[in-house]
């Protein structure tokens, strides 16, 4: 099924939803032109938004909003059947805004057996995370307590900053 022209997609108030995309979604659906995705699930049993294959195919995504996903553990989760040991690279080249709020069980952006070697958000200018008390790591090697928090153009470092990966343009960052 091709949805090549679809640019805006919103999932809202779907309490029975357990997943959006499962294993190798490129064979089933094509969202190569998707620019905006919003997921507001409330009490859904969904554990992740994307699997690794789907995340890698969202080259046109510009805005991602994830709200009130009570059981969400990670935004991107590695497929159970991944057998390749090649270095994984996840690039969101056009993503400008990422908002994650009210996801009490979210522990990280990426979760998997092996961490991807590189996650890039070269266009990201707005990153907001609020009311996600269990989010302790972005990726296993990228800890929230090692971030520099940018507030009104002033930088205050919370611990050492070890960013080995291009993450985003430091214009707005709100962790609450």
UniProtKB/TrEMBL annotation:
InterPro entries: At4g27190-like_LRR, LRR_dom_sf, Plant_NBS-LRR. PANTHER family: DISEASE RESISTANCE PROTEIN RPS2-LIKE, NB-ARC DOMAIN-CONTAINING PROTEIN-RELATED. This is Disease resistance protein At4g27190-like leucine-rich repeats domain-containing protein. Residues 6-70 form the Disease resistance protein At4g27190-like leucine-rich repeats domain. Keywords: Plant defense. It comes from Corchorus capsularis (Jute). It comes from the Eukaryota.
């Amino acid at each position: 099924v091709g949805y090549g022209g679809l640019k805006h997609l919103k999932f809202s108030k779907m309490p029975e939803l357990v997943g959006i995309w499962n294993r190798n979604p490129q064979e089933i659906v094509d969202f190569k032109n998707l620019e905006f995705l919003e997921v507001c699930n409330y009490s859904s049993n969904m554990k992740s938004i994307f699997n690794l294959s789907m995340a890698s195919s969202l080259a046109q995504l510009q805005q991602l909003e994830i709200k009130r996903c009570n059981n969400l553990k990670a935004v991107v989760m590695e497929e159970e059947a991944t057998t390749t040991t090649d270095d994984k690279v996840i690039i969101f080249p056009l993503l400008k805004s990422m908002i994650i709020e009210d996801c009490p069980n979210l522990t990280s952006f990426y979760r998997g057996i092996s961490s991807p070697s590189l996650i890039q958000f070269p266009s990201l200018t707005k990153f907001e995370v609020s009311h996600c008390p269990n989010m302790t790591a972005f990726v296993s090697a990228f800890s929230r307590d090692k971030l520099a928090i940018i507030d009104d153009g002033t930088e205050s470092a919370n611990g050492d900053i070890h960013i080995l990966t291009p993450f985003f343009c430091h214009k707005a960052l709100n962790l609450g």
